[in-house]
Specification:
Blueprint: E1 9-12, E2 16-19, H1 22-26, E3 31-33, H2 39-53, E4 55-59, E5 75-79, E6 84-88, E7 100-105, H3 111-123, E8 127-132, H4 140-148, E9 155-160, H5 166-171, E10 178-182, H6 194-201, E11 208-209, H7 215-233
Parallel strand pairs: 3-4, 7-8, 7-9, 9-10, 10-11
Antiparallel strand pairs: 1-2, 4-6, 5-6
Length: 234
């Protein structure tokens, strides 16, 4: 980054300061979080970002707000399960590299966060594979899922709620790095993801952890690992 760093940001009104060249600088895109933003602010941020960078990723976007990020100036790809929208103009050049990310979810209730991670990694340039509802209550399903992944991923994202045993079991089976994502699925004592997070942090198998329901950070980190692994193998 040179002395003209002010050119890397776009000021939007009194409420936004967009980092439009984050991907060029770090290899990970800036993500516009829709949750908590006023409708008019979200519209203006998307318009400014796409106008400058040709692409934008919008997270935690509910179906009733999709119209706010639609425009004739770009196409809008909305993934309802992940609550993610990809906005891109005809001039956009999505990144691609040889890195591979495998996303595994313990239960069907974890799929939304798993898809958030998978699509984020895909938008960042990774090739992705997925296997869902393969939790440890039926441990044979994990082996079946791994055998079906061809070619083998460079890194895995393991998404699980409740006691979140899946990331530990997966990390004990594979040579590749595993990123554990605890979800807020669960109830009673240690519910809302607390037990899941503690389980991953206390794992006896070597793995990494992100915060509860943090599909975006998991996808971005997995993409970075996959990209580096692909370069080294090449």
């Amino acid at each position: 980054m040179t002395g003209n760093h002010l050119l890397w940001t776009v000021r939007v009104g009194h409420f936004g300061d967009l980092d439009t060249r984050r991907f060029d600088r770090t290899g990970t895109p800036e993500v516009i979080l829709a949750e908590g933003k006023r409708d008019e602010h979200l519209e203006q941020l998307c318009r400014a970002f796409v106008g400058e960078a040709d692409m934008a990723l919008v997270s935690r976007l509910t179906p009733d707000r999709v119209h706010l990020v639609e425009s004739n100036a770009w196409t809008t790809e909305y993934h309802e399960e992940a609550r993610l929208a990809l906005l891109k103009t005809n001039e956009a050049t999505p990144p691609k590299h040889g890195g591979r990310v495998g996303v595994i979810a313990a239960g069907t209730s974890d799929v939304g966060i798993a898809e958030e991670a998978r699509i984020t990694a895909s938008v960042s340039g990774s090739q992705t594979q997925r296997a869902y509802d393969v939790g440890v209550a039926g441990p044979h399903r994990i082996d079946q899922a791994l055998e079906a992944m061809d070619p083998k991923p460079h890194v895995f994202v393991a998404v699980a709620g409740r006691e979140a045993a899946l990331p530990t079991v997966l990390a004990a089976k594979v040579k590749e790095p595993v990123i554990g994502v605890p979800t807020s699925i669960g109830y009673g004592h240690g519910g809302d993801g607390e037990s899941a997070l503690m389980s991953i942090l206390q794992s006896c198998a070597p793995l990494l952890a992100v915060n509860i329901d943090a599909g975006i950070p998991a996808g971005l980190c997995a993409d970075k690992v996959a990209k580096l692994a692909s370069r080294r193998r090449t």
